[in-house]
Amino acid sequence: MTDMRDDAPPATAKHGSGADHAGDLALEPNGDSLVSRSVTINRPRAELYRFWRDFSQLPTFMDNIVRVDVTGDRTSHWVVAAPGGSTVEWDAEITQDIEDEAIAWASTDGAGVANSGRIEFRDAGARGTVVTATILYDPPGGIVGKAVAKLFQREPAVQARRDLRRFKQLMETGEVATNAVNRQQHEEEIA
Amino acid sequence: MRALAWHGKHDVRVDTVDDPEIVNPRDAIIKVTSTAICGSDLHLYDGYIPTMKAGDILGHEFMGEVVETGPGSTLKKGQRVVVPFTISCGSCYHCGKQQYSACDNGNPADNQDIAQEVYGQPMSALFGYSHMTGGYAGGQAEYVRVPFSDVGPIVVPDGVDDDKVLFLSDILPTGWQAAEYAEIEPGDTVAVWGCGPVGLFAVQSAFLMGAERVIAIDHFPHRLELARKFGAETINFEETKVYEALQEMTGGIGPDACIDAVGLEAHGFFVDNVVDQIKASLFLGTDRTHSIRQAIVACRKGGRVSMPAVYGGIVDKFPLGAFMEKGLTLKTGQTHVQRYLPGLLNAIMEGKIDTTFLISHRLPLSQAPDGYKMFHDKQNEVTKIVLKPDLDRVAA
């Protein structure tokens, strides 16, 4: 059999999860579900990299992340909202850091939800920067857990798409768009 | 505050709701002095628009006084502003190209999912027009929170009456863009389907852009009379065979450009293809998309078709063969309001464009539900209803 793979990103494959190609994507093989999303942001690459490199800023646009404590130059502790009002926590370590280009991280051993991720920044000329987020994970509770997460709209594919849109809004406009009519409603929405 | 809220089909009420506040840095709060009911609001009223929720505040044509500003706003308290119906950030790639109604960022991230699934790309945000386009509270209210207030609203000079500038918010730039998209050349004959506000403004705009003749098509005598006042020739489609008349009136050539502004009948948002495409084909068994089909068939070879009328779903029996074989060009889309505001405000100040003729009724906000019913039931006499919250304040 000849290799029939085309030039499209593995996460857009019709068959399989694309997780077999984690190695090609410079990801630690933590899990078997692969999510990858790209967005074009009308800001310079270096500015976007700098914002992302400080993981403690991620909750400003990532809806389900309650808190990220930066515990060292390459280590951090993540507190993430899970379906049903609970939270899951894990320690993560940066596995790749190329200034202004890419950051990869992975949960360390013993994480309840094994996962790894990578964010890549590529120049897009007059359009700014193409930002690609790739996440590899083991859904808690397997396939059933994934279905439950989808029900609560915390399914990583949906979450990644929305988080990237918010990142774009924040970087391009200085704020995250909301239809809240007052501050109390806004607080309730982002809580 | 008091505001006009949607509760279901043919059920709108003036409710007491929370006052808006500054939430994001670039916000401003506007105290509404004039706010109109748009033809497209009737589609909400008729229950055709998906992703509406009970309690949603309607209204996307409004103006008023700045009463509060966030630190990122460029407006000043006390300024009078007209607010575009599209919510545009001014910072994204599309806004940079003046494609304001294609703004990437005005629509909250979660609300973008719906259009992304249906249209392939998320839509920009609009005031008071369902959750697919942002779920923002609209302008048929005493006060409105206006996001990105440094980009959208245009400041109106003191002493200029609300009625002269209110329609900068939507229908005047929409009619103007429709004519611009028709790429009119001097000597052209332009046919306009629909003599509602957008069609009538398209008639005026087409003449300003150099059209020699404009032929306006409708069935309401009063609206045809208004079109005639602006110099258009008219066709009443209840009395006349439209295709045959257009061919004869153009010496067998067909109009050089055709504008489909049949908003009310042809508005396609009723096609709730988010949940059900079969329903769409049933609706399309009716005459609702007739105007765009007729425009394509009537248009001259190599001509242009401009479509300000809103369509939301999937159209059956689209005359694709005629469109291709005649080599037509079709331009359409929501209006890039901000692009046209300075030029149109000038045209109004110089007396080149009149918009006040359109207003048939002025009501206090408290009578908005009656206004919706009247606009819905009597489209011949009721050309435009403007709600004035101040009329309630005076009464109180």
Helix amount of chain B: 25-40%
Q: Return the string of H and E elements of chain A.
A: EHEEEEEEHHH
Q: How confident overall, as mean pLDDT of chain A? A: 86
The oligomeric status of these chains comes to heterodimer
The main pleated sheet of chain A reads as: 7 strands, antiparallel
Q: State the CATH architecture of chain A.
A: 2-Layer Sandwich
CATH topology of the largest domain in chain B: Quinone Oxidoreductase, Chain A, domain 1
Report the CATH superfamily of the largest domain in chain B.
Medium-chain alcohol dehydrogenases, catalytic domain
The stretches of 5 or more residues of chain B where confidence is low (pLDDT under 50) are 264-287
CATH superfamily of chain A: START domain
Number of contiguous helices of chain B: 15
- End-to-end CA span of chain A: 52 Å
In helices, the fraction of residues of chain A equals 10-25%
Beta-strand percentage range of chain B? 15-25%
- CATH structural architecture of the largest domain in chain B: Alpha-Beta Complex
How are the strands of the biggest sheet of chain A laid out side by side?
1-7-6-5-4-3-2
Determine and state the CATH class of the largest domain in chain B: Alpha Beta
Number of strands of chain B: 18
Structural class based on helices, strands and sheet pairing of chain B: alpha/beta
The CATH class designation of chain A is: Alpha Beta
